[in-house]
Amino acid sequence: MKKRNILGLTTSGHGFSAALCVEGKIVAANSLERLSRKKYDILLPISKTDLNTFGWNDNPAIYKQHIDLPFDLEKDYSEVDFGKLEGFRRLMDHVLNAAGIGLDDIDCVAYSYRHNGNVKRFFEERIPGAEFIVPEHHLSHACQAFLPSPFEEAAVMVLDGQGVPMKRTGYDQLSGCLAQGSGNRIETIVEFPVSASLGGLYAEVTRLCGFQTNEEGKTMGLAPYGTPKIYEQVKGEIRLGEGAGLRLRDLKRLFSPGDRPKEKLYSLGNCMGFLQKFEPRQKDEPFSDDHKDLAFMAQQIVEDVMIYLAKWLREKTGSKNLCIAGGVGLNCVANFKVLDNSGFDSIFVYPSASDNGLAVGQALYIHNLVDGFERAYRTTHDYMGAPYTETDIRKAVESCREDADVVITEFREMKPLYGTMAQAIETGKITSWWQGRSEFGPRALGNRSILADPRDPDMKDVLNSRVKFRESYRPFTPSVLAERAGEFFELNTPSPFMLLAPGVKPGKENVIPAVTHVDNTARVQTVTRDVNERYYDLIREFEIHTGIPMVLNTSFSIAGEPIVESPQDAVRCFLSTGIDVLGLDRFFIEKRTPE
Questions:
Q1: pLDDT at 261 > cutoff 50
Q2: Which among 336, 363, 404, 569 is least buried, having the fewest CB atoms inside 10 angstroms?
Q3: Structure confidence at residue 533 (pLDDT)
Q4: How many helices (H) does the chain have, and how many strands (E)?
Q5: Domains 6-44+80-137 and 176-180+192-349 share a fold
Q6: How far apart are CA 328 and CA 323, in angstroms?
Q7: Cβ proximity of 588 and 420 under 8 Å
Q8: Which CATH number applies to 6-44+80-137?
Q9: Which position has the higher pLDDT, 259 or 572?
Q10: Options 3.40.50.300, 3.30.420.40, 3.40.50.720, 3.30.710.10; which CATH number does 176-180+192-349 get?
Q11: Strand extents, DSSP E, 482-547
């Protein structure tokens, strides 16, 4: 059997993404938001058809009240021609061009999970010989977790908000599963009903804290400012252990579960009912003690359950390796607690762990599980966007020259650019760094990053007031040379995707205050030269200048916008904010200092 070219597509309440698998390897992936410049772009508003797909059968007003996504419950989208949707065509063209193939080269489409009929018609009309497959949601997450991992065998944990109703589950949407992967096979061990949804609980607390849908990362950052007060009141509801009763009745106002699977390893009790007595924080309203304590509670519950499930998996499978996916897998604080307390030696969290990453999981599901090929792909980096040409870059630079009072220097070699950038960072400048292909996941990993000095205790406030315009309490990342990470952080394993948050070693918090969170943790990215030579060499140059083997890293974006994608996006963000310097490929662009 010949290896097929597989296009993975997924559209959900988290966005619309695509991935391309060629010869068993993921060669390109991206999300629509990066191209449309609309954060969390879901392509089409939530419709009545979507409510049925999601199993949301209560009064639609409930969902509109709780979910900050565009809704259109009047229009029938079942006949929409996806070929006429600019966003749909644009994203497909992006990944196809990145791989250097055309639509008619696609042999199989793995798709989920909105408007399946529309998408199927699109491909049947254009590539009638291609197979169209809709894989199961949480199995795709399990594939996304294990198949790109470095492990030959591993335990797998999938936790999210929900999937879609299925006949075999009594039309329960499920909220995760535990599995075991070996070679090119994955065996599901336990599935969790939607009534046990950790993602649903965390999303509700996120709403109560005044954040929008898909902003759970803000809740994670707020949690250390809280106290155990509310957690102590509700922790009796949490039941851990085989046969735990499930009584999360109040989730029915968000979800409509059917018959539940028999396996019950944990219960959240009446946590959701307990939360009904709290009022959501209003926009621009200060955080009350209750809001902070709610964030603490949600974070602690997630950690409690994940650690228990990981210990159970370790004993059940005997594996030393753990893979995690699903939206809850983006919780880097919980991930590190799991690694530190569960007995696993190694952990892998797919960098785009939420539903956007399903495009990868679905494509690998077809190649490895359906077609039966041995695994040929391992995720060593997340730079999956389409490459840009020198012409694209020079055009963006010229637009910058025309529109701003800037000084532009072009370097023939990269090394002098590293020195110039490092000096700018050392002297307190806010710099930005655009190189190569963009990151697929939600973390900027050194190709679309804003960089600053981690030693400056005021840098967090400077960044928030001049560039990011975001909540002041949220932490920034240290991107650290991998071989020196252990000198600064309680970390003895790689963290290349910024999905582990270890403690900062005693005494080092005063050395790198700008990247040390209030709880003395840091969202670490370890950087190796074989994965990202340019980023590594820049950090190494900063180390030569300062003795500190890391830089402060945050996404090249401002509040309310997605990470920049193209060189033109980078120039636009640079000119419209307080960023002082832009390192764009081999160009060093600096705003003139007013005299």
A1: no
A2: 404
A3: 98
A4: 19, 20
A5: yes
A6: 13
A7: yes
A8: 3.30.420.40
A9: 572
A10: 3.30.420.40
A11: 525-527
